[in-house]
Fold this protein.
Amino acid sequence: MSALFERLIVAAAVLASALYAFKALAPFGWRVAVARRLSGRLPDRLLIWLAGQGACDACGPRPAPAALRRRSR
Amino acid sequence: MNAVAAEPLVALVGNPNCGKTALFNLLTGSRQKIANYAGVTVERKEGRLRTASGSRVRVLDLPGAYSLRPRTPDEQITCDFVLGRLADEPRPDVVVAVVDATNLRRHLRLVLALRRLGQPVIVALNMVDLARRRGLPIDAPALGRELALPVVETVGVRAGGAQSLLDYLERQHAAPESAVADGVDAPARAGGRAAPLDEAAAVAADMASVAADQHEVERILGRLGLEGVPADTPSDRIDRFVLHPVVGPLVLSATLFLVFQAVFAWAQPFMRAITALIAALAGLIGAALPAGLLQSLLVDGVLAGAGSVLVFLPQIVLLFAFILVLEDSGYLPRAAFLLDRLMGSVGLSGRSFIPLLSSFACAVPGILAARTIPNARDRTVTILIAPLMTCSARLPVYTLLIGTFVPARTVGFGVGLQGLVLFVLYAAGVGGAFAVAWVLKRLRRANAIQPLQMELPTYHVPSLRNLGIGLLQRVEVFVRRVGTIILALMVLLWFLSSFPAPPAGYPGPAIEYSLAGRLGSLLAYLFAPIGFNWQISIALVPGLAAREVVVGALGTVYALSAAGSDVAGQVAPLIARAWTLPTAFALLAWYVFAPQCLSTLVAARRETNSWRYPAIMAGYQFALAYLAAGLTYHASRWLLALP
């Protein structure tokens, strides 16, 4: 395995973890604000995923904000 | 109209602990939590069922309510829904009034109130098997004639126990028949199902008719030959011991003590197996990948981090198996009854018991369960102290430290020292909660003492199905957390602990030079007085997300600090070499009170509708944790005569 390929895998894992941790821990309003800020730069489905979940397992899934859904269409 | 709105809506309504959620699970195939005490459901739950003909029906499980005059936030949810007060929710097409066949005297009052609303109502006579075993002459058709409502028999805890209800819903869907009582509250019916309900009139009528309802219930019971209900003899016999003022508390203490002993003694073989599996996996990865970034990420980050948390799964399963057995058997409300006097002395009511008990699993459902407390002050105090109950996320921290620093020996009478220490830590959490409640009682003027009024359910032999479902859910939750948020945080911590890489010839471990190492060194100024080194200080930061993350964080930090010969997933030998006994005890004391859990703070914010109480909660818990850890550290050093 080349050193570059290894670094790419590790970088992808770290970025994905950072995104997941933000989605899981940040308050709903923060996630919506970040998703709006990134709108157009990242895929809509990714942004809806980022904004649309509750902050803890016990809360269960919450719907993506309607405004964001409209924007993504 | 969309497809969801076109599906008929069926709402399950009834008194607490009449078996609504068991019936809901049977109808929809859901796995909502059920237990043999009142107040388990505090939010509406929705599911779908498909009838034999293939049509779909939406089913709502609503919190229990004694009447249509709500006294608690959870009752309010039910009443708002049934009375059509919710703007974005249609009124149900059919209300299924679930009643406990063993206690019709109390449950029929709500049926009469629902009947007056003029909505289609069907009565599900639940627990008929139990009623017949007690010799009650249950006659569903006769009850239906007396109520002028359709009545079906159900057994919520038995497979196929809801078939008669399903058949009725199928018939109702195919050819809607009137399930509205004849000659009852004709004006309410006149508007038909779509008519807006005159809410004030309905509530006023409900208030005026309580006495009349009781009279009507007595009349119906008299007609059915149910006026003299036989005593629940087996439960009464058990209660003579379990609720005895002297024997009862002893039975409760012995039960809890046994649970903690078993958690330590019985889980060990399974924990060793998981540890060996993780070590083997680390060996495989080490052999397959060359030393480098990817190998370090997988071995030091993923396996040493997330793997060291997964090891504690057997203990969590055992703890919840005991709690579920106690829940399903009907013992827990008795424990609430026994503790009412003690809770009253610190300004709480026995009603706080169930929310506090739920907090042993996780403080978030415990805080939600506080909705069953009618008094606002008691509710706020219960929410504030709920995080002091030892949640399951603390268990991995406790067992790691106890297993490492407390010798596995008995202290007489076959009592294991490790189980004893675990019991003391749980007791310290409860004691701390009561102490905080007592202080809050002094700070805030208490309302008049409210006597505890709660029903004691019949004892049941715990259902293996419920036990299996409950345990499976717990395992799912734990493994999902390990595989998602804990894994993500461990990868991030590995990154922060590995970069920037130290220059060539750096004398110490590479982690000291990393971002995490520098952050840890800064935090160590704050935590050094209570005996925490920089590695512990780093681990406390991701522990803010979830308490058990601290175990994985210690695994990653020490794996990266070690010379490379240590095996992933075995954090215990690493900390045994690095820490003194006072440091370990101080960390245990810290975690009895530690505030690290963002989800709990968010839940408290949502339930109190203010950031004030979460701020108070985080502040007092941090202060208590710091104080307790500091006292423990310095007292231990003094006792052990350490320099």
Notes: The first strand of chain B starts at residue 9 and ends at 14. Chain B has 29 helices and six strands. Residues 182-197, 564-568 of chain B have pLDDT under 50 and may be disordered. Chain B touches chain A through 26 residues (CB under 8 Å).
